[in-house]
Amino acid sequence: MKIRGFTKKIFAYFLIVIVLSLSCVGIFSYIITSGELEEMVENQMDQIAGNAVHHTDLYLKDYERSIVSLLTNRQIMEFIDLPATREEYDYYLYRKTIREVSVDPLFIRNPKLASVYLISDKKNAVYYYNNVNEQSFNAEDIQKQRDYFLANTTANGQLSILNHTIIEGQENQMLTIVRRIRGYTSPELSGLLAIEMRSADLSALWKGIDLGKYGYLFIIDDKGRYIYHPDGLKVGTSVPKAFFDKLNQADSHSFADAYEGDERMYVSRKSEFSDWQLVVSMPLRELRKPLSNIRSTTLVVGLFTLILAMLLAYRFGKSIAKPVQTLKSGMRETEKGNWATIPLPPHRDEIVELMVRYNLMVKRLSEAVDRVVQVELSNSEIRMERQKAEFQSLQLQINPHFMYNTLETIVCYATIQDSEEISEIVKALAYMLRYSVQTNLEEITVANELKHVMYYLVVLRHRIGREFEIDVAIKPEYLLHVMVRLTLQPLVENVFQHAFPDGLEDYHIVRIDGGVHDGIFWISVEDNGAGMSEAKLTQLREKLNTNRLADGEVDEAGKKGGIGVLNVHRRIQMVYGEQYGLRIESKLEQGTKMIMAMPALPQKLE
């Protein structure tokens, strides 16, 4: 789907970038954090289970040492050896002595003990109680107890910890530590020594362990029966076989199960001392609560950030799009030819700087277009003037072959009449005619222009009837420089027409000079004739500044001039540009100097 509109595009792109960034950060943070939290919780539960097992083993080992202290008592060993046909006094004496010497001190050291009792293979039994109701047993009861303990203890005298009690009404609330012992006279194990303690006392060991409101610990024996559980109704019952198998397979790793109703995580540790498994149980909802909080916080913060970012993206898009729209409108007006600048906002940034540059560009383009139009108009006028000048030259080409043939006929007659003057005049006129009737304004060398002036002086000498020389001061290296055709001779002719109104005298001089200065090639025609008044000079300069061809102007004598000074100036401009042309300097009664300025172009080889 294509998105139209600059603002919408910026908004869409910003939204995509923000959503992708927030999603990636949120997802990766959640995955990494959840993994780390699960690992931390598992390590914490593993540490709790390990510490609980350690403290429980220390607790049980303490009672084991109590039993060991009883094993070294001689009266206990002798009691085991009493025959079944004992004397009642002997039974009473041993019972009293064992209590005073061993049992009472044991109860004092371990007030949490509930009972201590001895059962021999000869059916002799003695029972001691601590803060519980005393029980009495007949021979049948003693036999049942003996059979149970023999079935649940090892023949090598190893200590056994059983979820069992002989005290009525205390079922599943007591733990019994029991082992087989020998008598005084035989190394054979012929009796049983047992102590009972309250299983609830184990919970006192774990008070420093914080498992939260819904977490707890319980103990399972190697047969899968509850030794301890906060729910006293479960003590003595068997755990579900599926859970017991999963517990054994998990070993020391955590696992989840819902056999207790809600889904919980379990971590177990097995006691090397008692072969019990101490299990830490915590609900998954509590364990995952920090993850839920992180997820909720991430979503809330992400949503807030997204909304804020969308607002900023919208404002940012508008701040860019609005000036761009203004630029777009300005360009449309420019396309229509309306060179109008666009309004600038009060603040300054890169976009506003672009608008400033656009206004400057429009202004300069407008000025440039105006200049181009003016130049085009000027070029059009120049082309028209050039055509006019060429038309003027065409007017001179009135059957030139007929005129050449006529001049040749005159030369023949002059030769027959032996008149060298006529022949010289006609030859000079023929050259000047051939040189003048070319219609183009192409450039010619200075040498050719001087040659044309020389032939003009030949004709002039015969007209005025006296010799006259022009001082040519142009250095030889400038003779091959180029200049506009037919511009030097009109200036020389102008001198003879206007500079010497009272006739040509010997002190009159005409000087032609030239040179190069600052890239300008100049040729001057200077005389010491009558000169011009300041008013006339100003008038002539104003005519030169009009940059127009003269069309048969009439001089003071009422004669219609030819190309003239004005046309020389304009012909130079049409060839080289309006920065070039003719400059006139003159003072009354001191002479006149006319200077042609042209570019110093490379020399032209003839």
UniProtKB/TrEMBL annotation:
Subcellular location: Cell membrane
Transmembrane intervals: 12-32, 294-314
Chain coiled-coil ranges: none
InterPro entries cross-referenced by the UniProt entry: Bact_2-comp_sensor_kinase, dCache_1, HAMP_dom, HATPase_C_sf, HATPase_dom, Sig_transdc_His_kin_internal
Record flagged with keyword Ligase: no
SUPFAM superfamilies on file: ATPase domain of HSP90 chaperone/DNA topoisomerase II/histidine kinase
Topology in the lipid bilayer: Multi-pass membrane protein
Any one GO molecular-function label of the UniProt entry: kinase activity
Keywords for the protein's UniProt record, in alphabetical order: Cell membrane, Kinase, Membrane, Phosphoprotein, Transferase, Transmembrane, Transmembrane helix
HAMP domain: residues covered: 318-370
Protein name as catalogued: Histidine kinase
Taxonomic placement: Bacteria, Bacillati, Bacillota, Bacilli, Bacillales
